[in-house]
Fold this protein.
Amino acid sequence: MKWDKFTFIDLFAGIGGIRLGFEGVGGKCIFSSEFDEDACKTYEANFGEHPAGDITKIEASSIPGFDILLGGFPCQAFSIIGKKEGFANETCGTLFFDIERILKEKKPKAFMLENVRNLTAHDNGNTFKVITTHLEALGYHVHSRVLNALDYGAPQKRERIIIVGFLDDVKFKFPKPVPLSERKTLSDILECHVDSKYYVKDRIRNSRLERLKDKDYPKPYISHENMAGSITPHPYSSALRAGASANYILINDERRPTERGLLRIQGFPDSYKIVVPYGKVKKQTGNSVAVPVIKAVAREMIQALKAFNEMEGKDDGKSTEIERLKTFDNANLVSAECVSQRTDQ
């Protein structure tokens, strides 16, 4: 396999941010799954397919063969903003194990998973240890790192853990930050003229300006209100959040981002279609990923896989086939103590 073209599946697909990143380096999606119907509506409008529904109800054997598994599995159970219930959360936290069962059944060459930064610290690191232990028990060489969207061209401070795995001992390195000259600024993405409906009421604007830490901060800026009530301006957006208040972030403390502006903050192209109301776009972009980060990781993964094939002098990695099969046969031997909070499905 040359990796100029490859197939992937898009689990917990949302509105397709991860898909965009991997399509950008030659990938073809052959299966997608998403639980939220509003997100499915947006996904279908942009990719021409309606994702399959609840992944917990889909048999792994029914999914066609593929090269790479992708999944931004739900983060609410691990988020520092949420209740941080982890695997005790039956509706979100245990969805990792659906990724595990699909990996075990389909044995793809690689995977990439995305989640909130707090996943690494949840339960004093035990949750992340369980995840990596299970992935390694399936025979994967696992790499992980927290990446910030600001470093890869998106004007948003969004830190997310990226977990990458390969069946073969591929020499993988996470992408280096892009040069400052290649990074989008607020001036690059913000519209100059927007409808009056995006502007906040005078009392909100005046309240924000009164509490603004630096009243001479150059425009354009985006500010948000912290827990103490302070208003801090930045030349970038704070991390978009699905459940944030209507005025969570404001541009120049006078207006909300438009639907297109929210998508641009996440690095979506202007060709991306908007088919749901503002509130749903806000939720969907808050739940999505920064596309430039995913594309940068995808590029490094494919380059690493190509280099491995060239080094081995073969395309299918048969040299490790016996060892991998042995590992998969023993994958059920992982101690039950590692999943003490797992809920059987």
About this structure: The first strand starts at residue 6 and ends at 11.
